[in-house]
Structures are given as C-alpha cells and as structure tokens.
Amino acid sequence: MADGLFSLRAVQASRGGRPVLLDLDLDIPEGMTAVRGPSGSGKSTLLRLLNRLADPDGGTVAYAGDDVRGLDPLDLRRRVCLVPQLPALVEGDVAHNVGLGPSLCGRDADVARCLELAGLGEEYAAREAGRLSVGEQQRVMLARALALEPEVLLLDEPTSALDEESRAGVERTLVELVRALDTSAVVVTHDRAQAERLAGSNVLELNGGRAA
Amino acid sequence: MSGVNVTLGELAAALALVAIAAAASLWRRADLEADLGIAVLRSFLQLTAVGYVIQAIFDSDSLWLVLALLVAMVGFGAFTARSRARAVPGALGPIVIALGTSAALTLGLVLALGVFDAEARYLVPVGGMVIGNAMTAAAVALNRLADEVSAERGRLEATLALGATARQAASGLVTRSLRSGLIPLIDQTKTTGIVAFPGVLVGSLVAGAEPVDAVRLQLILLWILLGSVALAALMATGLGYRGFFTDAHQLREPDGAPEG
Known about the structure:
- The complex is a heterodimer.
- Chain A is built from eight helices and ten strands.
- By secondary structure, chain A is of the alpha/beta class.
- Chain A has a single domain (6-211), classed as P-loop containing nucleotide triphosphate hydrolases (Rossmann fold).
- In chain A, the strands form two sheets. Chain A has a six-stranded mixed beta sheet with strand order 6-7-8-3-9-10, with helices on both faces. In chain A, strands 2-1-4-5 form a four-stranded antiparallel beta sheet, with helices on one face.
- The longest helix of chain A is centred in the last third of the chain and has 18 residues, at 164-181.
- Chain B is built from nine helices and no strands.
- In chain B, helix 3 packs antiparallel against helix 4 (92-112) and helix 6 crosses helix 7 (166-191).
- The A-B interface holds A 15-18, 20, 39-40, 42-45, 51-55, 73-75, 77-78, 81-86, 88-90, 100-101, 104-105, 141, 144-145, 148, 156-157 and B 154-155, 157-165, 168, 172, 246, 248-251, 253-260.
C-alpha cells in the first residue's frame, strides 16, 4: 500500500449546499491517525467520505489503493466502521446493540470480548442501552463497531460528549485497542492536545476545507 | 322528504345549520365566516358537477368511462397526498402506485368475489371511497415517515455505518409509519355504530333502505376499506422510504444540514 491506507485526491465535498472540502489532497497511513481542525473545517464530512456514507462532489477517495466508488458500500462499511460523535443506540439491551452489525449480515458477535475491549464488563450485556450514561453508551457504540472486526475504525469526536474523567478513560481504551488488535483508526477531533495524546506526531491538520 | 328526492328548498333549509357555524365564528371572533362561505360554495359546486358527471356515466353504463373517472381520481388523489407529504423525496411515484394498485386490487377482488356487479352505479362510488381513504392513509403514513426520518437521522446513519442496507436501517420507521396510516380506520371500524354512524349507513337509512340491508352494505364497505387502506399505506411506505436514500445506501441530507 504505497499510497497509505486512504488516499484523497482533489476531493471536493459540500454539506447542505455549502462547500466544506475544497480540492483536498490527503494521505492517511496505517495505525492511529488524528485529523484535527476547528468546527466547520470538514472533519466529519471527511470521515463520512472514507466509508461512503457520503460521496464527494469531485475528486477520488481510495481505500487500500481502490477507489471506494468501485467497492460494495455495505462491505466497505463493515471493513471501515464509523463510530459517530453522539451515541445512537437502538432499543434493547447492550448485547442486542453490540450484536447488531454482525446480525445484519448473518454473523454472530463475541459480545463479552467486544465489551471488554471497549472497557466495559460482561455484566453490561443484559443492561438496557437507553439507561446507561452517555459515557457508557459511547463505549457500547465502540463495542458495537468492534463486533464487526473492522480493519479500520473511524471515530468522530469520540469524547466530545464526555466529562474529563470519562474522556481520559476512553482515550486510554482507544490507544490500547489499536495496539491490541493491530488495527488502524482515524480519529477526528478539534482538540490539539487530544490529537497528540492519541496519535503522537501522526496528526493531520484540516482548515477551511484544505489540508493545512 | 321521502325516498332520495331532495328539493332545492330542502337543500337551502339545511344552510340554516351553516348559519349556526357562522354565528359561532362571529361570536368568538374566529374570523372563519369567509372560509365557511367558500367551503359551502365549493362543496355545492363540486358535488353538483360530479353529480352530473356520475349521472352521465350511469346513463352510458360504459365501463371505459368508469375506468377513466377512476384514473382521474387516482391522479387527483396522488397530487393531493403528495402535497401533504412534501418532505418525502420523490413521493409522487410511490403514491400513484399505492393508490392505483389499491383501487385496482380492491375493486378487482370485489368483482371476482361477486360482492358487487360490474356496473357503474357500484364501481364509481365504491372506487371513489376506496381511493379517497387510500389517499388519506398514504398521506398520513408518509408524513409520519418524514417526521421519523427527521427525528432519527443520527440513529439511521449510525445503523448504515454498520453495513445495514437502507431497508434494514429504515425497517422500524416504516413499520411505525404504516401503523399511523392504519390506526385511524381501524379505530373507526372498532367504534362504528357506537361512537359514530358511518355515512353509507346513514344515507341508506335516510333513503329508505331496510336497516339490515343498510348495515350489511355498510359492513361490506368498511371491510373493503380496511383492505384497500392497508394496501395503500403498505405500498406508500414500503416504496416511499427509498426516496430518503441513495442507491449506495446513503441517507440523503436535508436542505441546510449543519456541518460538524
């Protein structure tokens, strides 16, 4: 993969009719990468292009050397799994939520292991998802993504809704996770310090729709 | 008044009741007198015109003319339902299919089972009733679907992000929307004869029909409506949800979406 994990060339994208990415050229390598930028810089839009939750208006997005438009979008989303900024669990217990992704394509999930990886005990499996704290729900969202055994995790401001203590815990979990699973992750954040804590020097800056 | 002969004088007398509504509006300063006047005038003109059209079709007894009238009703009903469900992208196609199929299947089944004869005097009023109720059910269900999609965007996109198809992601919303389209008629059917007397029963009794015959006719029509409305709501929501998604199972963004 000479071009890295993701390769974006001359990417233009808009949201609500407003241009948010302008001729963006970006290479995202394997491992943990942070994309940092202020609000409105196009970070969330960028993540949604990587697993084809949205398509760009122009330019190309390639994953492992393949233009994502040529890939099956459903398969791509299982391989490159997005954890959204806010928890969005479905009705039911935690086990149901964690097993949701695999069940959609007829697979089983190792719920206990996914919960453990996400920093939650096995006892959470039977708890009602809607009754958990926001921090716990965010960890269930992470476990739900892990259940698909993705090649890449896309994390959209994963701690924006959390207090300081929960945020530190989730950050530790993410760093350990990427090491333990030898997987890749792309984290977008507006927080420079967090970007460096998570990805060290592997931080890409986005500003005004372009790589800074 | 005897039988179904209604004189213009009797019709004019019924306007006294509209005067009560106008007086209530004046007293409470609701400013509805002009609307009431327009409503009365429009109902008189529209029903009188359609009365002559139906009379002409009955006189000709041409099934082609019946079919043309039913097609016109489906077209008009579809545009009306679409105007009430503007938030659903590309809703017109699903609504036309829902109303057309619902009317065709219902009337076809009614004829095949021998419930009514293939005559204009049965097909026109029953078809009109079927299409009118199907239109309302489709509009209500699609409106609810648009509200559900708007409220559940985050959850929908999070489910798509797990590799769900558009159909899988929208399944729960489609079911809830279908329910909202059907529940009014189911409730009406449950309470019929207790809370409200349906129009056909009242009309038949006033026209001099035997109560048992009037009730049987009303039951046939209520049950036909249940089937046709269920079909219409099922098809409108089952096809209509697709308008919110692209072929690549992406949720279309609403106008003016904020960017994070």
